[in-house]
C-alpha cells in the first residue's frame, strides 16, 4: 500500500467516523485539551492500523476497537501522570468546558459513564451507539451472555443514580 493510498483511506475513515471516534474520546477525556490530545492519539493509531485492516469486521467495528484500546491505554497513562498532582482550586474555573451550553442530561450521562470501570464504560458507549451484543462480544472479547449481564447492571446503576439527579432528568 502506498502512502497516498493510506492517506486517502485515512481521510475517508476519519470523515465518515469522526462522531464515533469522538464519542469514545469524550467518555475517556474530561476537558477539551485532553479530548484533543486523545483524539490525536486515536487518529495516529487509526492511521497506523490501515495496512493491517483485513476487512474481517466492519470498518466501524475496527475503528471502535482501535479507539477503545487507545483510550484505555491513554487513560492509564494519564492517571499515572496526574498522580501526585493536586487540583488547583484557584484556576479550576478556567478548566471547565462550555457545559452550560450543552444539554445537562447528556452532561450528567457522560459524567456517569466516566465513573464506570473501563470495560463497563466501553460497553455503555457501544450500547449508546446501537451495537448488538454479538458485535460488542467480538469487539470486547467477552461472551454475549456476559455482555447482557454487564449491560443489565449498568442500566440498573444508571437508573438508581438518575433518581438522585435533581436537575430535570
List keywords for this structure.
Arc Repressor Mutant, subunit A; mainly alpha; 169 residues; 2 domains; Rna Polymerase Sigma Factor, Chain: A; single chain; 73% helix
Cα end-to-end separation: 50 Å
User: What are the low-pLDDT stretches, counting only 5+ consecutive residues below 50?
Assistant: none
Proportion of residues in helical segments: over 70%
CATH architecture identity of the largest domain: Orthogonal Bundle
Give me the secondary-structure category: mainly alpha
* CATH homologous superfamily designation of the largest domain: RNA polymerase sigma factor, region 2, helix turn helix motif
Number of strands: 0
Q: How big a fraction of the residues is strand? A: under 5%
The CATH class assignment of the largest domain is Mainly Alpha
Q: Count of helices?
A: 8
**What is the N-to-C succession of helices and strands?**
HHHHHHHH
The name CATH uses for the topology of the largest domain is Rna Polymerase Sigma Factor, Chain: A
Query: Largest sheet at a glance?
Result: none
Mean pLDDT: 83
Integer tally of domains: 2
Radius of gyration, in Å, reads 17 Å
List the helices and strands and how they pair.
Blueprint: H1 3-28, H2 32-49, H3 59-82, H4 92-95, H5 104-115, H6 118-128, H7 133-140, H8 144-164
Amino acid at each position: 500500500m502506498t502512502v497516498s493510498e493510506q492517506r486517502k483511506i485515512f481521510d475517508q475513515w476519519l470523515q465518515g467516523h469522526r462522531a464515533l471516534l469522538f464519542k469514545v474520546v469524550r467518555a475517556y477525556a474530561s476537558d477539551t485539551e485532553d479530548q484533543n490530545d486523545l483524539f490525536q492519539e486515536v487518529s495516529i493509531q487509526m492511521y497506523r492500523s490501515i495496512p493491517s485492516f483485513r476487512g474481517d469486521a466492519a470498518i466501524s467495528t475496527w475503528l471502535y476497537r482501535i479507539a477503545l484500546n487507545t483510550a484505555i491505554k491513554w487513560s492509564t497513562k494519564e492517571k499515572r501522570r496526574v498522580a501526585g498532582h493536586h487540583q488547583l482550586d484557584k484556576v479550576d474555573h478556567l478548566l471547565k468546558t462550555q457545559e452550560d451550553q450543552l444539554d445537562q442530561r447528556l452532561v450528567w450521562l457522560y459524567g456517569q459513564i466516566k465513573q464506570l470501570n473501563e470495560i463497563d464504560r466501553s460497553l455503555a458507549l457501544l450500547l449508546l451507539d446501537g451495537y448488538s451484543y454479538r458485535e460488542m462480544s467480538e469487539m470486547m472479547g467477552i461472551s454475549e451472555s456476559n455482555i447482557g449481564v454487564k449491560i443489565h447492571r449498568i442500566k440498573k446503576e444508571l437508573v438508581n443514580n438518575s433518581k438522585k439527579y435533581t436537575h430535570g432528568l
